[in-house]
Design goal:
alpha+beta, 12-stranded antiparallel sheet, Porin, about 300 residues
Length: about 300
Amino acid sequence: MTNAPSSLPTPEHIVAELVFLLELEPKGPDRFVGRRRPDGTGRVFGGQAIAQALEAASRTVDPSRTVHSLHAYFLRPGSDDLPIEFRVKRDLDGRSFSNRRVVASQDGKPILNFVTSFQEPVEGPSHQHPDMPDVPPPEELKPDSEVRQEVAKFVPDGPLKNLLLRPFPVDFRSVEPRDWLAPKKREPTSHIWFKTIAPLPAKPSLHRSVLAFISDFQILATALQPHGKSLHRGEVKAASLDHAIWFHEPFAVDDWLLFATEAPWSGGARGYSRGQVFNREGKLVASVSQEGMLRHVK
């Protein structure tokens, strides 16, 4: 990836790094290689693998067709030390829909199975339910980055402090701020505004890939809220098992979107969460669902 011009990169540089991460290198017919994230935690972030797989599939579909859904199964932890190879299978190119399968591998072993469907634009019956939740606008909320910086003052040097202080390309603003150090039990619902910290190129497919990247944040943590447990204090071992997104309407990820999540169930060392993404006008633009492993650490 490109080198930062200083120890304090600009928002534009940080977002450009994300765009660069999601660009793929073609390595033959329907085969691509995804770049590594140099500031990762050692394990590939699930949202990165999903976004890169979506980009690989999109490269093999007529540009007139737009992704409307994707389903991903995480098989093995990926490593930030290795690039990811994506092999695409063209299962269908019909009159209105195209379907693709993608296998993401590292060191010859699959880490992600991915299926996605694309549709030719067409009109049909339209409705939306429910309405967008009534929450404060993002301008009235403190950026999560400021909250993390305050928390970091009380955290010893180590992986958690590095995570709290790491520059990030997305401005998150939580309606119900997370308690990083001593979480208390609360309802399994969450509302968080987000947008990239600098403008993105006006390329709709890129905005969908970036939303796929962001959609893996926060959603599984919602399933831990009724238990007062934290993913960052070593109390619970967590991993995404499967992830699905349905894209409903056009949107821009460099403008404010609201991610409303809920976790209706957890048990059997698994948690299930679902989320809805709304734009500022209250239009439902995407839906997300995820199941993850949640195990007590003894």
